[in-house]
Amino acid sequence: MRAYSRPTEFNWWLTNRTYFFFVVRELTSVLIAAYMVFLLVLLRRLAAGPEAYAAYLRFLGSPGMLLFHLVALAAALYHSITWFRLAPMAITLRVRGRRVPGATVVAANYAAWLVVSLVVAWIVLRS
Amino acid sequence: MIHRTEPLWWLLFAAGGSAAAVLAPVLILLTGIAAPAGWFPQAFPYEHVRALVSHPVTRLVLFGVIVLSFFHWAHRFRYTLAEGLALKRAWLPVAVVCYAAAIAGTVSAAVVILKL
After folding, report:
1. Domain-located, residue B1
2. Which chain B residues touch A78 with a CB distance below 8 Å?
3. Window A:21-50, CB contacts with B under 8 Å
4. Which residues does chain A have within 8 Å of residue B28's beta carbon, measured at their own beta carbons?
């Protein structure tokens, strides 16, 4: 005998706000990966020479591509914020036998994120 | 096969999530918006960017964040397809296709970055 299991509806994630934002968070990885593909193409064009690089920058400057990168930036920020907020739930950190409060871990994550972003921006923009 | 190697895929997913969380926003802002929009014109001439990405540390970081983001995508997309679209019965082909795409991305990233 087999128990009846109700089939999952295709649109279950549209029925509830929490489910909807869960799927949005999953889909941020699609935009981040798509951006990484464009970054790889940029590196390839860079290796091909100055003309190829300039042409690709012009392509990236088209309204559609700028819009894509704005949406990808929003998705990446949403991913970063939710990822760092979840970290203390995935890992418990102990210092001298005492559990480090979740808020401290999240604050440390945000601080590390800010420092790394500033260092990367400084390395690229200094000259 | 996928079952037995599950910890490996999960580790790549977690590493990718962390790498993307730290680096993706600043990289998108720099290469996707600032450079094409012409902000900081002194920072993005060919010679300057070429010199920057020729450095072994830059290449290693770029390779790491690109490849790990692919595996992060593969893992999340796999579960979004299997559960989000209720394709649970097709979980093995879904997993194989997602991770194979990430592995293909890894190979092309290696080729591009080695040639820099």
Report:
1. no
2. none
3. 23, 26-27, 29-30, 32-33, 35-40, 42-44, 46-47, 50
4. 35, 69, 72-73, 76
Domains and CATH numbers, chain A: 12-90 (1.20.1300.10)
Contacts of A59 (CB under 8 A, 6+ apart): A65
Q: Which residues pair with A95 in a beta bridge?
A: A98
- Name A95's Cβ contacts closer than 8 Å, sequence gap at least 6: none
Q: How many CA atoms lie within 13 A of A16 on its CB side?
A: 5
Give the pLDDT confidence of A16-75 residue by residue, as tens digits.
888 888 888 989 999 999 999 999 999 999 999 999 999 999 999 999 999 999 999 999
Task: Judge whether B109 lies within some domain.
Answer: yes
Dist. CA A5–CA A11, nearest whole Å: 17
Question: Is B96 among the domain residues?
Answer: yes
- Whole-model pTM? 0.91
CB contact at 8 A, B17 and B73: no
Mean pLDDT of B3-27: 95
What is the domain range of residue B63? 6-114
Q: What is the Cα–Cα distance from B97 to B57, expressed in whole angstroms?
A: 31
Could you tell me the CATH number of the domain that includes residue B81? 1.20.1300.10
A21-26 LR contacts (CB < 8 Å, sep 24+):
A23/B80, A23/B84, A24/A78, A25/A78, A25/A79, A25/A82, A26/B76, A26/B77, A26/B79, A26/B80, A26/B84
| ipTM of the complex in this document | 0.95
